What we know:
By secondary structure, the chain is an alpha+beta fold. It has helices at about 1-20, 30-40, 60-70, 100-105, 120-125, 130-145, 180-195, 215-230, 250-260, 265-275; strands at about 50, 55, 155-160, 170-175, 280-285, 285-290. The radius of gyration is 23 Å and the shape is globular.
Amino acid sequence: TRRECRDLTHACYSEYIGKVENGIPRDIKSFWSHVGSLKSSPNVPTHMTLDKKEATDPTSKCDLFARYFSSVFSDTTVPIPRFDYGWNQTLSSCSITTLDVQRTLESLDARKSAGPDDIPPRVLKQCAPILAVHLTILFRPLLASGVFPSNLKQSYVIPIFKSGDRGNIRDYRPIVIQSALAKVFESIILNNIYSQLKSRICLEQHGFLKGRSTTTNLLMFQEYIMSAFANSSQVDCIYLDFSKAFDKINHSLLISKLEGYGIWGPLLRWMSSYLRERTLIVKYDGGTSLP
């Protein structure tokens, strides 16, 4: 019996390795997840510090992480200019159809963890045809009134070690886990806005865009260099890395720029509501922080 169990275990593991290997062209994430699982996981530090403050129990560690991550965001009061890009098209609302909601639900990654609402994406995905009707009825008046529900603004934050000292809170970066319903709602709105603004986005931008990535950026850069070499031209390159750039975006400035691109009315109020009064709960070492 023990031998049969061992043989079956080996066979199942070999089958799993084969699936991971064969799936590399279409699912590289699973491959790297497997590679990561082979590495020995370091122990969680017993003592963690943020400046001169120290934490030893899980809850205190989470509170220190929460304090640090929230301090990174800087909503500095600056004069907000009025942007006018000469954009004649305007958008004050979005069409939310049952079909849109169903397709968005079905596109959820069932492997992802549940957010603060404790609703697993797998449940929403499998029940998409039924839930789509009710969620459409819920989303439409929320958008019309320019309100993003406060209970969907809460997110889990998982600290991930970058490099340096594992006991130093500052050497971690946050991974945000939102509620699946929040992702569905924002994805529907994003698709509508993207179709309105995609023609205004420069070809040189590769981040945060569908079909663009670091790969497309490097391919374009390589083509530029090869063309320059063929013409015996000089190429100078400057790399910049803005510290915590994504976390420090001024929301008032962002809303003003969207208004300059023709976003107004309930849709602009919805986006402003989406950005305001968000809360986070840090989960680490079996503990959680206060919101």
